[in-house]
């Protein structure tokens, strides 16, 4: 029985690690990108308690989900909380651009196993720094030991690039410009 549980846990970790984080390619944004807070028709970041917020239930960037976006210029962070496009209810998955700490942090919940993982990447290099389980334990060595470190890096690289492209198209500025203004 222990062997089966260990095998199932290892398989779940491998599956989650395959959707990890990594570098994003050049975002292609020039320094002259607009610093306005509205670009696409109907797309507006609204100031609320010192933060910029918006809800886009039809974003579709991450597995067809919507986004609740919260940008905190004081903290230099931008949170993309995934939401159910039909109800607006928050899912457990999110992505956080933290320019103050230089990290991209991706929270992933695997419903099949009921497990949650946190992938932390360096914003400047895109390098995967750490993978943690829901208890906050560093499981990076287990991911490396299973030969999944590289694939753990590629999933978030794609997600990060997709979010950045979506944000720039929607608001006419980069995530970094909005979070560090």
Description:
The chain has four helices and eight strands, in the order H-E-E-E-E-E-E-E-E-H-H-H. It has helices at residues 2-17, 140-145, 149-171, 175-179, and strands spanning 46-48, 51-56, 66-72, 77-83, 90-98, 103-110, 115-122, 128-133. The chain has an eight-stranded antiparallel beta sheet. The longest helix is centred in the C-terminal third of the chain and has 23 residues, at 149-171. It is globular, with a radius of gyration of 17 Å. The termini are far apart.
Layout of strands and helices, then pairs:
Layout lengths: L1 H16 L28 E3 L2 E6 L9 E7 L4 E7 L6 E9 L4 E8 L4 E8 L5 E6 L6 H6 L3 H23 L3 H5 L2
Antiparallel strand pairs: 1-2, 2-3, 3-4, 4-5, 5-6, 6-7, 7-8
Task: Please sum up the structure shown.
The protein has 181 residues and is of the alpha+beta class.
Walk across the major sheet and give the strand order.
1-2-3-4-5-6-7-8
Instruction: Report the mean per-residue pLDDT as an integer.
Output: 82
By DSSP, the count of extended strands is: 8
Unreliable segments of 5+ consecutive residues = 1-38
Helix content: 25-40%
Q: What multimeric state do the chains show?
A: single chain
Order of helices and strands: HEEEEEEEEHHH
**Category by helix and strand content:** alpha+beta
Largest sheet: 8 strands, antiparallel
- What is the global morphology? globular
């Amino acid at each position: 029985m222990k062997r089966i549980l260990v095998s199932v846990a290892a398989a779940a970790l491998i599956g989650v690690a395959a959707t990890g984080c990594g570098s994003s390619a050049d975002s292609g944004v020039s320094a002259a990108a607009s610093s306005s807070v509205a670009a696409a028709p109907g797309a507006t970041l609204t100031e609320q308690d010192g933060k910029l917020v918006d809800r886009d239930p039809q974003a579709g960037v991450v597995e067809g989900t919507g986004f609740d976006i919260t940008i905190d210029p004081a903290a230099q962070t931008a949170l993309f909380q995934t939401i159910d496009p039909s109800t607006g209810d928050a899912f457990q998955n999110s992505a956080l651009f933290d320019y103050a700490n230089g990290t991209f942090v991706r929270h992933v919940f695997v419903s099949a196993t009921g497990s949650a993982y946190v992938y932390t990447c360096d914003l400047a290099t895109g390098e995967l720094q750490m993978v943690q389980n829901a208890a906050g334990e560093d499981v990076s060595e287990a991911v490396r030991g299973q030969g999944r470190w590289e694939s753990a890096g590629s999933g978030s690289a794609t997600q990060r690039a997709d979010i950045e492209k979506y944000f720039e198209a929607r608001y006419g500025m980069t995530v970094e410009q909005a979070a560090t203004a």
